[in-house]
Amino acid sequence: MMKNFLLSTAFLITLSFCSFAQNQNINNFNFLLGKWEMKTKNGKVVERWTKHRDSLTATSHKFDAKGDSILTEAVVLKKIDGVWHYCVTGFEKGNEGKTNFKLVAWTSNIFTFENKQHDFPQKISYQNKGKEELLAWIEGNINGKTRKISFPYVKQK
């Protein structure tokens, strides 16, 4: 009896988080706007986010030490049938193609998108760390092992 109550309560809490996540409007993603940079051992990665009427778009470029760049991915953050999605198109070898991730969780400063059918990652998250910092990470299973990769970004002028 108690077990059923606990399972029912957990289900209702999960359902309310999903419902709350979908009730977010485009302005809740405004902290992403602008140019963000992450230093790497071989150069840097730059994400640029732009707001449109009912969506956000982003491009991600890798720059080598000489300043040469390649477009690695393009993102559209939009509602599809009333559900927020992180729609990414990869351009790097081994990461080509389009994949959609559905918004499954939102707190005051972290949102998480998920696609359980994708090989890796299965989750993409962004954390608002204030006006000057943004933390993104991807996570999921590779060959039965959980893996998480973090991307700490700094705001650029």
Structure overview:
- With 157 residues, the chain is mainly beta.
- 13% of the residues lie in helices and 57% in strands.
- It contains one helix and ten strands, in the order αββββββββββ.
- It has one helix spanning 2-22; strands spanning 34-40, 43-51, 55-64, 69-80, 83-90, 97-106, 110-114, 123-128, 133-142, 145-156.
- It has a ten-stranded antiparallel β-barrel.
- The radius of gyration is 17 Å and the shape is globular.
- The protein starts with a helix and ends with a strand.
- The model is unreliable at 2-21 (pLDDT under 50).
How would you summarize this macromolecular structure in one to three sentences?
With 157 residues, this protein is mainly beta.
The count of DSSP E runs of length 2 or more, i.e. the number of strands, is 10
Summed up, the helix count is: 1
Main sheet: strands, sense, barrel? 10 strands, antiparallel, barrel
Order of helical and strand elements? HEEEEEEEEEE
- Report the uncertain regions: 2-21
Average pLDDT confidence is: 88
Structural class: mainly beta
Write down the overall geometry: globular
Share of helix among residues? 10-25%
Task: Give the distance, in angstroms, between the N- and C-terminal Cα atoms.
Answer: 58 Å
Approximate strand percentage: over 45%
What is this structure's SSE topology?
Blueprint: H1 2-22, E1 34-40, E2 43-51, E3 55-64, E4 69-80, E5 83-90, E6 97-106, E7 110-114, E8 123-128, E9 133-142, E10 145-156
Antiparallel strand pairs: 1-2, 1-10, 2-3, 3-4, 4-5, 5-6, 6-7, 7-8, 8-9, 9-10
